[in-house]
Design goal:
With about 600 residues, this protein is mainly beta. It folds into five domains: about 130 residues, Galactose-binding domain-like (Jelly Rolls, Sandwich); about 90 residues, Immunoglobulin-like (Sandwich), CATH 2.60.40; about 120 residues, Immunoglobulin-like (Sandwich), CATH 2.60.40.10; about 55 residues, no CATH class; about 150 residues, SGNH hydrolase (Rossmann fold, 3-Layer(aba) Sandwich). The chain has seven helices and 41 strands. The strands form ten sheets. Strands 1, 3, 4, 6, 9 and 11 form a six-stranded antiparallel sheet that branches. Strands 36, 37, 38, 39, 40 and 41 form a six-stranded mixed sheet that branches. Strand 40, helix 5 and strand 41 form a beta-alpha-beta unit. Helix 3 runs parallel beside helix 5. It is flat and about 105 Å long. About 35% of the residues are buried.
């Protein structure tokens, strides 16, 4: 008699909702409790249609980082097992890394027995999420497990990566199987690898491997699994110990800039160096970068600062800031134009002595423009440019038009006019303070704003404040006399938050937000004029050498989804909140800082 698997999404749901498009789940879907509050509960139910007898019942569920859930299994109304889901397995949302199987032996089932899995939330940070239940006949003969060989592990034994630590989700048991559904453990393993490295394998399949000093190539070790019923099998784990022979890859981070005539301000830009091992900091100096441009400009850029990131979750190893200084006498109009930024040959290397060859990294446009606009004592019109200009009227009855910058209008003597006719949206002027601003949606009596993101947007937390930034933003709108409409399918917040609508989803990462927008057609439903997007904190729990690039690619795809659905909407992207290294880990905290630092380049 074979096993029976019942997907949670096909069962009768009470207090649960289906979460589709989960590629890591059995059946590509899971169920989650519909409510997040303390004491919220839910039940999944099904009637047994198999042959009456004794079974081992397995529950597949997700144990997230951020709370506690109590699960109870009942058969015909009688509890047969109860347990707490309160482990920290690397993710605050459902993921392959925190999938757990709970086995309950000796469960008696009759024809049409009612099987229920109840859940109760004991901490508001975590939802109860279920994947499936599976039934295995107790009287079936034991089938030995199958241990499959493992590969794909790579370590570069330089700098910080002196050992390879592999978690449970990616450990040696991750591809091993047992036809009976028995819980597998590692019963034995080599302590020394074939090439003299050291190995520590835990019973749950996680392991640590440390290569022999100065070794590169393929190494291996064996391990034996057990199903707890006498069945065993042995497999081989292969590990690639890489040798570094590739020079770092430089990339330019620079933006066009307008500079005032006569200014001596430096122009600062960034070069990032990607490498498998790390950058030799002693090779970063003021001889690295050469900048050439109009009017014979040719200058070695001065090293301003550098930051080396040895965190292997980041996609770069060093970031250096360089500056060029103004020509003698300051910037002038002859200096306007395109500037080429190139790295010098054999100047920057990695920790293995691999030097970068000379190459052009890119170019930047520097526009040298007038800064201050002065009138005479006659009646004149002064028009500013794209810079932040002071316009001085002096004598006469002048008209002052600031242009597109943030400007200071000084009328001087006479009767002067501040001209805002160029603003199609009108202006908000405070005559007491002398400050004015052009409202983004001055022509709309009540623009629709969609706060979009994770739990920070949702404001589920009691700290710092319920409702999070939405409360302060709402109050600021009231202070400015502006009428707006927050929109979204969720609604919560304190009494001082007048409009509680939003689309904040606790525990969601960037892809989750994109999926919920498309699957529920939210953008077409609400047609927002402005989207306030703050997302990325939950992505920092994942690992991998390309994680930062993955986050930026996912965020770019999310922004594309928004702009394609509501092309006239303004998308305002906010940096994610700081992550406390004491409870989130130093790797997550640093990744959050790095993600924020490069958001302006997106």
């Amino acid at each position: 008699m074979s096993s029976i698997r019942i997907e949670a999404e096909s069962m009768t749901l009470t207090g649960y909702v289906v979460e589709p498009n989960k590629s890591f789940a059995s059946g590509r879907a899971i169920v989650a409790t519909a409510q997040t509050g303390l004491g919220s509960s839910g039940t999944v139910s099904t009637s047994f249609t198999g042959t009456a007898g004794s079974y081992t019942l397995r529950v597949g569920y997700y144990d997230e980082n951020d709370g506690i859930v109590q699960f109870t299994v009942l058969v015909d109304g009688t509890a047969v097992e109860s347990w707490m889901a309160d482990q920290n397995l690397g993710s605050s949302n459902a993921a392959a890394t925190n999938f757990v199987l709970r086995s309950i032996a000796g469960v008696t089932l009759n024809a049409n027995s009612l099987i229920q899995v109840q859940s109760t939330i004991l901490n508001t940070g975590e939802l109860a999420r279920l994947d499936y239940i599976e039934l295995f006949p107790s009287n079936a003969p034991n089938i030995s497990p199958v241990a499959n060989d493992d590969s794909g592990y790579t370590i570069v034994p330089l700098l910080r990566e002196t050992s390879l630590d592999v978690n449970v989700a990616n450990g040696v048991l991750s591809n091993d199987t047992d036809a009976d559904g028995d819980l597998l453990t590692v019963a034995a393993s080599d302590s020394t690898s074939a090439q003299g490295g050291t190995v520590v394998v835990n019973t749950n399949g996680s392991f640590t491997y440390t290569p022999r000093a100065n070794f590169s190539g393929t190494d291996s070790f064996t391990y034996t699994i057990s199903d707890g019923k006498g069945g065993t099998d042995t497999a081989i784990v292969s590990i690639n110990v890489a040798a570094d022979q590739v020079a770092p890859t430089p990339s330019l981070g620079a933006t066009d800039k307008s500079i005032g005539v006569g200014s001596n301000d430096p122009y600062v830009f960034t070069v990032r160096y990607l490498d498998d091992t790390g950058i030799d900091l002693t090779t970063l100096n003021s001889q690295d970068i050469r900048v050439t441009g109009p009017n014979g400009f040719n200058q070695l850029a001065t090293l301003v600062s550098n930051f080396t990131n040895f965190d292997w979750m980041s996609s770069y190893r060093a970031s250096a800031s360089y500056a060029i200084t103004a020509p003698a006498g300051g910037w002038n109009s002859a200096n306007s134009g395109l500037y080429g930024i190139a790295i010098e040959s054999n100047q920057v290397s990695d920790a293995s002595g691999n030097f970068i060859t000379g190459q052009l990294l890119g170019s930047v446009q520097l526009n040298v423009l007038p800064v201050t606009f002065d009138s005479t004592d006659g009646d004149e019109t002064l028009i500013g440019n794209a810079l932040n200009n002071p316009l001085n009227g002096f004598g006469g009855n002048d008209t002052l038009w600031g242009g597109t910058g943030n400007n200071v209008l000084n009328g001087g003597d006479g009767i002067d006019t501040a001209d805002y006719s160029q603003s199609a949206r009108g202006v908000i002027a405070n005559l007491e303070t002398g400050r004015s601003a052009s409202a983004l949606y001055g022509a709309l009596s009540r623009p629709k704003i969609l706060p979009l993101g994770d739990s920070i947007t949702a404001g589920d937390h009691t700290y710092p404040v319920p409702g999070a930034y939405r409360t302060r933003l709402w109050q600021q709108f009231l202070t400015e006399g502006l009428t707006i409409d927050f929109v979204g399918s969720r609604s919560n917040g304190p009494s001082e938050l007048g409009d509680k609508d939003h689309e904040g989803r606790g525990g969601f990462d960037i892809l989750d937000i994109r999926n919920i927008l498309t699957s529920q057609n939210l953008l077409n439903t609400y047609q927002p004029d402005v989207v306030l997007l703050m997302i990325g904190s939950n992505d920092t729990v994942f690992t991998g050498p390309t994680l930062l690039n993955d986050m930026f690619n996912d965020l770019s795809s999310l922004i594309d989804t928004i702009t394609q659905s509501v092309p006239n909407a303004h998308v305002v992207v906010g940096s994610i909140g700081p992550l406390n290294p004491s409870n989130r880990g130093s790797s997550r905290a640093q990744l959050g800082l790095t993600f924020n630092a490069f958001l302006p380049e997106l």
